[in-house]
Design goal:
The protein has about 280 residues and is of the alpha/beta class. The protein contains 11 helices and 11 strands. It has one domain: TIM Barrel (Alpha-Beta Barrel), CATH 3.20.20.70. Helix 2 packs parallel to helix 4 and helix 10 packs antiparallel against helix 11. It binds zinc ion.
Length: about 280
């Protein structure tokens, strides 16, 4: 199966009532963990490339790694650029053959966010790939984006509707009570607002900060129109704990194939759990 455009993948999930897992990858092992999990579950999948990974390894090399391993799977795969704050970077991703790009202008004034997001959406649509925008501030720490909790306001329906009309994004990241990173207490999603947003924006909603949200809340959110769920922290945790397990057994295990291999295996299992929770298993 070749790459599939993000909008095609997410729209199908939205119409059928499941969600696409957008799993962050940081190196070859994490790319393989996501691909192997998707193949095992016969699930479509998004591999997310975020700003930290780009800063350390580079955008084009990471995309080339996914390209190199794509032949190992037969399920639909989409490579997505996460939280880009630069128009030029979204173009670079398009040139490298990403199937989905996100411009995050949530830190900008509304008009500026809408103007740049629209430009990104126009390029994406001309090339028949998916585009994600963000309205409302999502709390927490991710990719060097810090937002104080008090600023992490719930997205208003009026703003979301204006933003969608002004930009034409295919799927919309909103703030409904999740945060990036580790929760200090379980989040409570704003389901009432999510239900209102479904009516006003009439397109798939993206849930950021999916790690650590109780399963029942995830499933309820999918029922209310969430069709792409970003997961990063829980996967990095699983990977790191897998490696730590090896070192606990043998502190002098210096074979990276062994330590990284155990991390990859632990992450693959976690991705499979998420795929089943999101209902995308068997949808390839
Ligand atoms: Zn995010």
């Amino acid at each position: 199966m070749p790459y599939v455009a993000g909008d095609t993948m997410v729209r199908h999930a939205w119409q059928e009532g499941y969600a696409i897992g957008a799993f962050s990858a940081h190196n070859a092992e994490t790319i393989l963990a996501v691909l192997e999990a998707a193949e095992a579950e016969r699930s479509p999948v998004m591999i997310q490339i975020g700003q930290r990974a780009i800063n350390t390894l580079g955008l084009a090399p990471l995309k080339a790694l996914v390209d190199a391993y794509l032949g190992r799977v037969s399920v639909p795969v989409c490579v997505h650029l996460d939280h880009s704050r630069r128009f030029e970077q979204t173009l670079e991703a398009v040139r490298c053959g990403f199937q989905s790009v996100m411009f995050d202008g949530s830190h900008l004034p509304f008009a500026e966010n809408a103007r740049i997001t629209r430009a990104v959406a126009e390029v994406a649509h001309a090339l028949k790939i998916g585009c994600e925008g963000e309205i409302g501030k999502i709390g927490g720490v991710e990719d060097e984006i810090d937002v104080a909790d008090e600023e992490a306001l719930i997205t208003s329906c009026e703003e979301a509707a204006r933003f969608v009309a002004a930009t034409g994004v295919d799927y919309l990241a909103v703030s409904i009570g999740t945060a990036h990173g580790l929760y200090t207490r379980p989040p409570k999603l704003a389901f009432g607002r999510l239900a209102e947003l479904r009516e006003t924006v009439a397109r798939p909603v993206v849930l950021h900060g999916g790690s650590g949200v109780p399963d029942a809340q995830i499933q309820r959110a999918i029922g209310l129109g969430v069709a792409k769920i970003n997961v990063d922290t829980e996967l990095r945790q699983a990977f790191t704990e897998g490696m730590a397990g090896v070192l606990a057994e043998n502190p002098q295990e210096y074979a990276l194939a062994v330590t990284l291999g155990r991390g990859r295996e632990a992450m693959r299992q976690k991705v499979q759990e998420k795929i089943r929770l999101f209902g995308s298993q068997g949808r390839a």
